[in-house]
């Protein structure tokens, strides 16, 4: 089963929800937990563990052999990212940060060997054994890198290569292709939101994305007592259901400050029971 926890905006408590669900699910199932929030991965911190077993994520970039280049300009014309420049009578050259690694330039080049393979480091993935039934795969974007998509894909691939009952993804905020890459093929998508106008707005963006992907949304309203926002209209227009509401609870704050997820620090608390009720819903689908 593939389960994804997402949220339109940052700071909704998405990682807290995902971390607590991962811990509870791993009591009965083999879980691979994927932190695909590559710009700001923090699940390893919430789980009080470390990033281990580092692997590089490299992206193709063209390397020109000017002794074979005829300056025909085809590579420049066909680069959709405008990552290649060529001045009159000159050879093409690359602006690396704009390159998506699509290889189109290499494919259209008529001169064999004029464009060779080269790579740039865009991120890392890590694999950490958290406990017997729980492994964490984390994607981390390289410093200064803007393209998150290849690192999300690499983390996803590394996770899917591990044998498990449940793959639980924690996505980046937003609705870009990096989020779609983590969400697609999910059996269950849990969207975490908060009852504020901004929370509602971003929730609708995610619901639109899920509609395009033909996926149903399970909504968790975090900090449910901080505002009064009606979700009736959204529930009518999209395939969505509110499965849990988590109020501001002292035990969540205390567990956050202590660095131990609430389902472990306060297993009998109201907050832990809410997470258990979400797990029961998930297990109905398993
Ligand atoms: S790999 Fe793609 S994006 Fe990069 S320079 Fe070639 S055509 Fe442009
Ligand atoms: S397509 Fe090949 S031959 Fe033409 S300018 Fe680019 S590298 Fe040179």
Automatic annotation (TrEMBL):
> One Pfam family name from the record?
Fer4
What PROSITE patterns does this protein map onto? 4FE4S_FER_1, 4FE4S_FER_2
The record's InterPro entries line, in alphabetical order, gives: 4Fe4S_Fe-S-bd, 4Fe4S_Fe_S_CS, CobQ/CobB/MinD/ParA_Nub-bd_dom, P-loop_NTPase
Alphabetically, the GO molecular function entries are: oxidoreductase activity
Taxonomic source organism:
Aciduliprofundum boonei (strain DSM 19572 / T469)
Provide the protein name: Cobyrinic acid ac-diamide synthase
Which residues does the UniProt record annotate as the domain 4Fe-4S ferredoxin-type?
60-90, 91-119
């Amino acid at each position: 089963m593939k389960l994804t926890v997402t949220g339109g905006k940052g700071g909704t408590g998405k990682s807290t929800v995902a971390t607590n669900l991962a811990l509870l699910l791993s009591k009965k199932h083999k879980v691979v937990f994927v932190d695909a929030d590559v710009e700001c991965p923090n699940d390893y911190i919430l789980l009080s563990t470390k990033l281990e077993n580092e692997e590089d994520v490299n992206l193709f970039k063209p390397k020109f052999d000017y002794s074979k280049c005829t300056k025909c300009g085809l590579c420049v014309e066909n680069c959709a990212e405008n990552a290649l420049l060529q001045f009159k009578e000159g050879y093409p050259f690359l602006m690396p940060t704009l390159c998506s690694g699509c290889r189109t330039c290499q494919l259209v080049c008529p001169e064999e060997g004029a464009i060779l393979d080269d790579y740039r480091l865009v991120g890392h993935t890590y694999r950490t054994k958290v406990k017997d039934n729980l492994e964490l795969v984390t994607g981390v974007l390289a410093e200064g890198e803007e393209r998150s998509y290849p690192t999300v894909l690499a983390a996803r691939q590394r996770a899917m290569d591990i044998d498990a009952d449940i793959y639980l993804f924690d996505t980046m905020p937003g609705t870009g292709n990096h989020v779609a890459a983590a969400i697609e093929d999910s059996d269950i998508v849990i969207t975490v939101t908060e009852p504020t106008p901004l929370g509602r707005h971003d929730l609708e963006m995610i619901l639109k994305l899920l509609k395009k992907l033909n996926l149903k949304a399970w909504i968790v309203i975090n900090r449910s007592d901080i505002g009064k926002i009606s979700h009736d209209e959204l529930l009518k227009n999209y395939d969505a259901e509110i499965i849990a509401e988590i109020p501001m609870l002292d035990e969540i704050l205390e567990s956050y400050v202590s660095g131990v997820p609430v389902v472990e620090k306060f297993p009998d608390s109201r907050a832990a029971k809410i997470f258990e009720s979400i797990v029961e819903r998930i297990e109905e689908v398993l």
